[in-house]
Write a structure and sequence with these properties.
This protein has about 400 residues and is of the alpha+beta class. The chain has two domains: about 1-275, L-amino peptidase D-ALA esterase/amidase (4-Layer Sandwich), CATH 3.60.70; about 280-395, Roll (Ubiquitin-like (UB roll)). The chain has helices at about 55-65, 85-105, 125-135, 140-150, 205-215, 250-275, 290-305, 305-315, 320-330, 390-395; strands at about 1-5, 15-20, 35-40, 45-50, 70-80, 110-115, 160-170, 170-180, 195-200, 235-240, 280-290, 340, 345-350, 350-355, 365-370, 380-385. The strands form three sheets. Strands 1-7-8-9-10-4 form a six-stranded mixed beta sheet, with helices on both faces. The chain has a six-stranded mixed beta sheet with strand order 14-13-12-15-11-16. Strand 5, helix 2 and strand 6 form a beta-alpha-beta unit. Helix 2 runs parallel beside helix 3. The protein is globular. It starts with a strand and ends with a helix.
Length: about 400
């Protein structure tokens, strides 16, 4: 498997992207509208937020995926089109209809995604004009793909892209993705959008299954602030243009699954690295759990603890924050069997402090916390970040 540098979602065969400005962002002329267009016969799949206040675009796309002929995705940033009532639903449908008119397909063959501030009506006339411009200028050029990864951003520090090329018996396929997300990140499927394209041939039900499995160790294994957004969406599109049939053999399916998971996990980690106000990427690894769910619960409790995240920002190796979070996580273990290490320093062993110094392990932009529950064979990893004053400043001014 070969990692691609400067990957874009139009690198796999069968996709085009176009961008424009609808004036949804503060900076005049900044790109905020994009279309991802696909060839006929492209399979589509999606995983969406579990928030009960799911935005209008989520409700539209969720209704029509998985699909065996998804022709496009209409995206806007700067306005979430969430909590906007029946009008919001009409606007989401209108976005799909406009792209469908350009593609010569039905509106049901177009997914819709929005991200941005909640509760503001979408200025649909401006969005319609921008979508038309984006469709007319759609291209499979690298520049078009790069602009697309910028157009979907809100408070992100920069674009997040990833891609790999893999193959079997000389036949190659490509998987690429782009994502946005910096705050409101704690997916059960975070404000988070992700778009993955591949030129492998994948039946829609298989793509849906693999996407659902893939989010468990990627987008469902990250947290920035514990908030689960109204608009979270992960979409995957498979054009089949490479001619590589994922179902042709167990080996091909395995390689495709590995490539898909690699791209998803890379994008998820990039979201945490670029989170609002973050200065450290933190890896919380739990081993020795009685069940997989116990491992995930323990890792999530620690990674979500505000006290833990503040301590990490101050480079304070306060293992007491870790112990406390483990204690309320719901995971089963005996306290006297637990061991905790911060980087290479074991600070808590079999239920007792060791006195080891670990401040130096927290210096730098990345740190790892290792937890052995001593209760079984299962493990899980969560990625999170520190919580800084900058995060508070950004969100204290994010007014409705």
């Amino acid at each position: 498997m070969q990692k691609l540098e400067s990957a874009t979602v139009v690198q796999p065969q069968g996709f085009r992207m176009g961008c424009a400005s609808a004036g949804l962002k503060k900076t005049k002329g900044e790109l905020d509208t994009a279309v991802l267009l696909a060839e006929e016969g492209t399979a589509g799949a999606g995983v969406f937020t579990t928030n009960r206040f799911a935005a209008a675009p989520v409700r539209w796309s969720r209704e029509h995926l998985p699909a065996d002929d998804l022709r496009g995705v209409a995206v806007n940033s700067g306005n979430a089109n969430a909590c906007t009532g029946p009008k919001g639903q009409e606007h989401a449908r209108r976005m799909a209809e406009l792209v469908a008119e350009k593609c010569g397909c039905s509106a049901e063959q177009v997914a819709v995604c929005s991200t941005g501030i909640i509760g503001h009506p979408l200025p649909i006339a401006d969005v319609e004009a921008a979508l038309g411009e984006a469709c007319d200028g759609a291209s499979d050029s690298r520049a078009a793909g790069q602009k697309g990864s910028e157009a979907i951003l809100t408070t992100d520090r920069g674009p997040k892209t990833s891609g790999v090329r893999a193959g079997v018996d000389g036949e190659k396929f490509t998987v690429c993705g782009m994502a946005k997300g910096a705050g409101m990140i704690a997916p059960h499927l975070a404000t988070m959008l992700c778009f993955i394209t591949t030129d492998a041939q994948v039946p829609p039900e298989v793509l849906q299954d693999m996407l659902g499995q893939g989010v468990q160790n990627s987008f469902n294994a990250i947290t920035v602030d514990g908030d689960r957004s109204t608009n979270d969406t992960v979409l995957a599109l498979a054009s089949g243009a490479s001619g590589v049939d994922v179902e042709s053999s167990k080996d091909t399916r395995k390689r495709f699954g590995r490539a898909l998971r690699s791209v998803m996990q890379d994008l998820a980690i990039q979201i945490v690295q670029g989170a609002e106000g973050a200065s450290k990427l933190l890896r919380v690894q739990v081993t020795g759990a009685r069940t997989r769910e116990c491992a995930r619960s323990a890792a999530r409790a620690v990674a979500s603890s505000l006290l833990f995240k503040c301590a990490m920002h101050g480079e304070d190796p306060n293992w007491g924050r870790v112990v406390c979070a483990l204690g309320y996580s719901g995971a089963w273990f005996e306290p006297d069997d637990v061991t905790i290490s911060i980087g290479a320093a074991t600070v808590f062993e079999e239920g007792r402090p060791t006195g080891a110094k670990a401040s130096s392990e927290l210096q730098g932009s990345e740190a790892s916390i290792y937890i052995d529950l001593g209760a079984g064979q299962h493990k899980a990893t969560m990625w999170t970040c520190d919580l800084s004053k900058d995060y508070v400043d950004i969100n204290a001014g994010y007014a409705v």
